[in-house]
User: Fold these one by one.
Assistant:
Number 1:
Amino acid sequence: MTVKHLKILHQHNADIHQTFEKDGHDVVQGLVATPKTLPPKYFYDDRGSELFEQICELPEYYPTRTEAWILNKYADEIADITGSCELVELGSGSSTKTHYLLNAYQKVANSLTKSTPDAFSYIPIDVSGGILKTTVLHLQKKYPDLILEGLIGTYDEALLYLGKNHSRSRMIFFLGSSIGNFNESESNKFLNKVSHALTQGDYFLLGIDLQKPKDILEAAYNDAQQVTAAFNLNMLAHLNWRFQGNFDLNLFKHQAIYNEIDHQIEMYLHAQVEHQVSLDILDLKVQFQAGESILTEISRKFDLAKVQSQLRSQGLETVKIWTDPQKWFGLVLCQVL
C-alpha cells in the first residue's frame, strides 16, 4: 500500500521514549490510586479497534446506527451550511459513518470550478495505525479525487500538529459521542484545544449520546455476545504488550453500570481472586484484592442545552442541531465566531 498518505505523529517527538514514559505515567497513577482506574485510550491497539468496530454492529449498541441515520439524512444539509472545507476527523476508525459526509462534500466540490483543486480533502486521525492504513487504502479507491492525509496519533498530538496553520476553511468533527469518555474538566480542555485548531468562521461537528432509560443504556454496554467484555479485557492485553505486563485476563470480569446521578455509563473490570500483577517496563507491581475493580471508561450521556452552553464557553457557537425521531442521539454543528 502507498504510505505517502500517512504520517505518524509521535515520531515527530524529540525522543519517542518520552511518549511511552508519559503513557506509562498515567497507568501508574491509575493503578496505585484508590479506587483503581485506567485511561480509555489504552483500549485502542489494533485488536481493540477491531473489537470496537464489531461493537458498532451489535443489535444492542444503538449509538452507531442512530448517528448513522442522522448523518445519512442530514449530511447534505451540513455540507450546504459549511460549504467546501477541509474535513478533519478525530478518532476516525474505519470511517464507516464518514462516508455520508464525504459523499455530501464531494457533491459540493463537484459544483465548484476546477480552479479549486483542494475542495475535497479529508484528514482522518486515529491512534491505531493498522485500522487507519486499511481505511486510507479503501478511501483512495472509493474517492479517487479525495486529497487524503491520515495522521496516526492521539487527539492532543493531532490538534497540536494541525494548529491554526490552514489556508482554507476547516471543519473538525468528533463522532460517536467519544467526548463522553471525558469528565467535564477533561472535555473543557479538549474543546479548548479544538477551538485553538480552528480560526474564525471554521466549524466543529460533535456527535453526542443523549440521556435515556437505564435499561437501554446498560444493555448497550453488556451485550449478549460479550464483544464489549472482550473489548474491555483487551485493554489488559494491550498493557501486557506495551509495558511487559502479566495481567491474566481470565482473572477479571467485565461489567458496565449506569450511574443515574452523574448520567454516565461506568465500565469496570472486577478482579475475581486476590493476586499480584507486574508491569516490568514501568517497574510497577500492583496488588489486587478479590472483588476489587478497575474503572476503565465512563460514557457520559448529555443534555443538549448544557452541551450548547459548554461549547459556547469555549468559543464555539451552535449553528444547528439534528437528532433522530426518538431523540436518542444528537449532532451539534458549531462555529468559531
Number 2:
Amino acid sequence: MNEQSLHWDDLRVVQAIAETGSLSGAGRRLGTSHATVFRRLNAIEARLGVALFERSRTGYAPTPAGEDLAAVAARVEAEVLGAERRVVGRDLKLSGSIRVTTTDTLLMGLLSPIFADFQRTHPEIVLEVAVSNQLFNLSQRDADVAVRPSLSPPEHLVGRRAGRIAQAAYARADSAADAWVGPDRHLGYAALDAWMAANGANERCRYRVDTMLGMLAAARDGLGSAVLPCYLADAEPALTRIGEPIPELATDLWLLTHPDLRRVTRIRAFMAFLAEALADSDRL
C-alpha cells in the first residue's frame, strides 16, 4: 500500500477537527484524548506533506487542503451510513435490537407498559430506550424509531400519526387558587409559555421546572396549578382536572423512522404493535 494513502480513520480525524474546531472537541467526537488526536493529525500531515489546519489561540481552522479532505470525509460518511441502513433494511428476522427515542413523560405515562408487552411478545428483540426531549438524528442511526409529540415532524422521516395528545390544567384540591407551576426556560415550551402569558398565569407562577414530570410532581405536592398532558395527569389520584383540555396546546403523537429502515421486519413489527396499542389506549 502506498505510504501516502489515506485511510477512513484519517478522514474521520480531519472531519472531527474541522467540524468541532478543536482537538478536545474532536477527541470527544471520536472517543479518544486530545493528545491522541494531536499525534494522529501530525502523522497525517507528515505523511501527506501538507498542512491541513492553521493553529491559533481560538482553535483549528482548516486550510484549503483540510477543507477538501473534510468534505470528502462527509461524503464518505454519508455513503457508509446509507449502505449500513440499506443492509440493515434487508433483515427479515424478528430478532436483533431496536433503539427507540422518546420523552420522559411519554415513557412514564404511556409507553412503558406497551414496550413491556412488545418485549414479552417478541423476546428475541432487544429494546434500547433513549429518553431525551431532543429529536435524535435518525439518519446517523442515533436511534431507529422516534416516538414524539409534533405538529410538523421532519420531512426526511417516515411514519404515522398515532394519536392526539390533549393537555389541561390540573391542581391538588388544597392548592392555593392563585398559585401556578410553570416550565423553566430550558424546557423550551414556547406554546405553553404563550398560553400562560395570555391567561395571566405567569404573574402568579412561583415555581418553575425544566421537565414535565417535575411539573407533575410540583402540582401533586400542592405547589400550584400546572398544565399537563392528560395521559399523564389523569392517572395521578392527587390531581383534579380544571376545566376542559386546552385546544391550542393539543399536539399529534408520531411514530417515526428513517425511510431506509421502514422495511426492516422488526421495525415494521414494532411500529405496527405501537400503533395498535396506542389506538386502543384510553389515555389518548
